[in-house]
Structure prediction request, 66 residues.
Amino acid sequence: MDDRKGSSTVGGVGFVGMLTIAFIVLKLCKVINWSWVWVLSPLWISALFVVGILIGIFVIYLIANR
Prediction:
């Protein structure tokens, strides 16, 4: 029996997504005069952060299994 009356789900756009959307809207409305690299920077900065964590986990894994 699947009773979801009391359950809640979390979803939607997070902080990075909202910040990116805000920067895109500001750029398209000509409020800011940034290059697209900086408008989309929340996406690539968070991606670099995730890649850095994955590299760190991989290095720790290699050291632990040495």
